[in-house]
Design goal:
single chain, alpha+beta, Phosphorylase Kinase, domain 1, Transferase(Phosphotransferase), domain 1, 5-stranded antiparallel beta sheet
């Protein structure tokens, strides 16, 4: 990195990168420098390719890229200006968005994602923390999308921050690491669901619980939580959140067309869980990876103890059933298998006599106890001998 940039102070830091405010001595302007912590050559090469593609996209909803590259300290990117506004996460701490506010946020996010998807760029880890809003009123708002190359980085290694980082992860990412444009559409649905309710659609106390909720599509219907907006708007968001990728809009542009129609998507009745496959439907062959847009590099913090990386997207999956990245599997919900007792012979069914043995023993014990109560007190008395034969018994005086 050129010596023309002077680091002023740290703006923010997560487990993947540091963001600092710097001064450009040549231009006399303040810029933002993000220094990525990875030192792996393949990840640095992936970041180079990602930012090379980003440099070709012009949008008012993206940071203007000034410079990027790699030096002895790793990869860095430089964008113009200070941090804009506040994150959507911070804004939602004051309550859900109104209908007008939601339309502004949704429209601008669809615009920037449409531009990215048309250039075959996939974000891969959209969440409210990566959405920033500046402006004093909805009419003046400018929504910008951030987090490129940061993947599922969290503020720290705590369980709560890990869950926050993964709360918008699509089911296919949990299963086999697939990341494509439909994956961004799902993450956008999670962001917009949270925008209307001020709560994430999926939550849990551990990554394993969060994963199972995404795979099982376990979320409250939006129409019950966001009665302040039209029903078509809720139906549109739920359409983006379809558990089956083939049931979602194929890219942001298709979702944008549906949103501009202001109508509920005309969809067939779908099962609430992906575990219930539609009957008599031939499986769709997987699309060739050559025609899929490239995925953004995933830069992750060090895995927590007891968590292993099981997929190509390096999403930490807790111990339990999972789908390996190199194996094809039907799009079904992962269900915990019943526990098996190895080395223990199977029990034989009990006979009717054995089943009634306990009450019989109890009754017998009660009889013995009653006999003991009446018989034992008489054990100390001398018994009267029987009278001799031929002689009458003597009368007592």
């Amino acid at each position: 990195m050129s010596s023309r940039f002077e680091i002023l102070h740290l703006l923010e830091e997560d487990t993947a990168s540091k963001l600092s405010l710097v001064r450009d001595h040549k231009r006399g302007a303040e810029l933002r420098l993000r220094r990525f912590k990875t030192t792996k050559p393949d990840e640095i090469e992936g970041l180079q390719e990602l930012f090379r593609q980003l440099s070709t996209v012009e949008s008012p909803h993206l940071d203007r890229l000034i410079d990027f590259g790699a030096d002895k300290d790793g990869f860095y990117s430089i964008v113009s200006g200070p941090l804009p506004g506040e994150t959507l996460t911070t804004m939602l701490e004051r309550g859900p968005l109104t209908e007008k506010e939601f339309e502004v946020v949704a429209t601008q996010l669809l615009e920037v994602l449409d531009a990215l998807h048309e250039q075959t760029i996939v974000h891969g880890s959209i969440r409210p923390d990566f959405v920033r809003i500046s402006g004093s009123s909805p009419a003046e708002w400018n929504v910008t999308l951030h987090g490129f190359g940061q993947g599922f980085a969290a503020l720290d290694d705590s369980k709560e921050e890990q869950i926050r980082a993964y709360r918008c992860t699509a089911p296919e990412q949990w299963q086999d690491g697939t990341t494509r444009r439909r994956t961004d559409v799902y993450a956008l649905g999670c962001v917009l669901y949270e925008a209307l309710t001020a709560r994430p659609p999926f939550d849990g106390r551990a990554l394993k619980e969060l994963r199972l909720k995404h795979l099982g599509h376990d979320l409250p219907p939006l129409v019950k939580l966001a009665s302040h907006v039209p029903s078509w708007m809720c139906a549109w968001v739920m359409h983006l959140l379809a558990a089956d990728p083939e049931q979602r809009p194929r890219k942001a542009g298709a979702a944008r067309v549906l949103f501009e129609r202001r109508e509920a998507p005309n969809l067939p009745e779908l099962p609430s869980s992906r575990a219930e496959a539609p009957p008599e439907v031939a499986p769709t062959p997987p699309a060739s990876p050559v025609h899929q847009p490239p995925s953004a590099p995933v830069i992750l913090p060090n895995p927590q103890q007891g968590v292993r990386h099981a997929t190509s997207s390096t999403i930490p999956i807790a111990a339990g059933p999972h789908v390996a990245a190199n194996k094809s599997k039907r799009p079904t919900t992962v269900v915990q298998s019943p526990r098996r007792n190895y080395g223990t012979p199977a029990r034989k069914p009990k006979s009717p006599l054995a089943a009634n043995l306990k009450p019989i023993l109890i009754a017998a014990a009660a009889i013995v106890l009653m006999l003991a109560i009446f018989v034992l007190p008489r054990c100390g008395q001398t018994p009267t001998p029987p009278p001799a034969k031929g002689k009458p018994a003597a009368k007592k005086k």
